[in-house]
């Protein structure tokens, strides 16, 4: 409950664009480019804003020189085959010191895997799917250089994760990219991604080669298993939004501010009277406010009988 006003209080706090950068530069180096808004859009679950601002990116960057790189607690060696292909999965799960709000759900376990994502749960077995995640650059990554790393700091109010000097894996990228980026998950649900170094523009890389489908940049959550398959919802696929203007390269900063979801409402009244993007209905059998089942635990919604018997805003007096 305490979180509801927080979420409602969301005043989308745009990045403050430094006024010290108003000098127009004749130089070609991106260091001197004026900050530029690349993308600015309501994506229903998040408000997404992307800018390119090398100075902002630098100021958000956290020095982790003194932090040990993680040693991937569970790995199944050999991690790379003769072709230096990452055949197996590296996993490291971590309990957070705070609850992170993700699609309206509290999460205090995350797992890093080799696929460039932060999974929003503790992954306990090798084949377990990761369908609820934050992906700054979700594709196979190679950590085989000595200087490659994942490091993190849990500040008690945020989790800051850095991927350093990693390469994109699929074998079609023979070119090294030496990517360094940082993701911060704030307790209030805000996600901030800072791309510090990428040797080639990601737009050029993905579109010229048409490898867009090989990457996920953004977030998604899972409705849970329905039969054998885990069903996803709420997909934010920023790789599909990329274009000449919205490119991801050195100095791109993406901020995703969470927007309210139905599952936050804990009473029938709050649920049915809610005025948010989603149409929320109350399921009395489950004591649950839902966007017609489009959230976690879809199976419970299906078997509850609420599918044909929910309380919607037009019948709020039935609460
Ligand atoms: C969430 O926390 C971040 C970092 O402290 C802050 O910039 C942002 O304004 C906060 N958002 C809300 C909605 O409170
Ligand atoms: C996280 O949320 C759970 C469930 O609401 C609560 O029991 C727990 O105390 C919270 N943890 C922290 C660190 O706030
Ligand atoms: C990758 O980038 C880092 C930081 O810019 C640099 O120190 C390192 O030498 C680079 N590695 C390669 C193989 O280019
Ligand atoms: C990013 O910065 C590196 C130096 O750190 C530079 O070599 C590279 O060309 C830059 N990439 C882009 C796309 O500007």
UniProtKB/TrEMBL annotation:
InterPro entries reported in the protein's UniProt record: Plexin_repeat, PLXDC
Keyword terms: Glycoprotein, Membrane, Signal, Transmembrane, Transmembrane helix
Keyword Cell inner membrane recorded: no
Source organism superkingdom: Eukaryota
Compartments it resides in: Membrane
Membrane topology per record: Single-pass type I membrane protein
GO cellular component, one term: membrane
Keyword Transmembrane annotated: yes
Signal peptide per UniProt: 1-21
Protein name: PSI domain-containing protein
Origin species: Cloeon dipterum
């Amino acid at each position: 409950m305490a979180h509801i006003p927080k979420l409602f209080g969301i005043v989308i706090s745009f990045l403050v664009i430094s006024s010290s950068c108003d000098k127009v530069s004749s130089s070609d180096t991106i260091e001197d480019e004026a900050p530029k808004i690349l993308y600015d859009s309501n994506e229903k679950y998040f408000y997404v804003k992307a800018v390119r601002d090398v100075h902002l990116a630098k100021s958000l960057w956290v020095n982790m020189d003194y932090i040990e790189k993680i040693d991937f607690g569970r790995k199944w060696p050999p991690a790379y085959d003769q072709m230096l292909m990452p055949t197996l999965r590296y996993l490291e799960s971590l309990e957070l010191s705070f609850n992170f709000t993700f699609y309206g759900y509290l999460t205090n376990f995350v797992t890093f895997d080799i696929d460039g994502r932060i999974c929003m749960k503790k992954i306990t077995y090798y084949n377990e799917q990761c369908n609820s995640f934050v992906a700054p650059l979700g594709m196979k990554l190679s950590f085989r250089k000595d200087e490659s790393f994942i490091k993190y700091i849990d500040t008690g109010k945020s989790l800051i994760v850095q991927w350093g000097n990693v390469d994109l894996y699929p074998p079609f990228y023979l070119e090294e990219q030496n990517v360094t980026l940082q993701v911060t998950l704030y307790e209030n649900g805000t996600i901030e991604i800072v791309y510090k170094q990428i040797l080639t523009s990601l737009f050029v890389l993905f579109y010229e080669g048409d490898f867009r489908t090989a990457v996920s940049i953004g977030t998604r959550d899972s409705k849970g298993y329905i039969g054998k398959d885990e069903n996803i919802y709420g997909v934010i696929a920023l790789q599909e939004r990329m274009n000449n203007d919205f490119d991801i390269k050195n100095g791109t900063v993406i901020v995703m501010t969470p927007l309210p979801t139905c599952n936050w409402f804990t009473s029938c009244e709050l649920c049915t009277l809610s005025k948010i993007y989603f149409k929320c209905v109350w399921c009395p059998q489950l004591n649950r406010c839902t966007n017609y089942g489009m959230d976690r635990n879809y199976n419970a919604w299906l078997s509850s009988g609420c599918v044909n018997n929910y309380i919607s805003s037009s019948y709020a007096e039935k609460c």
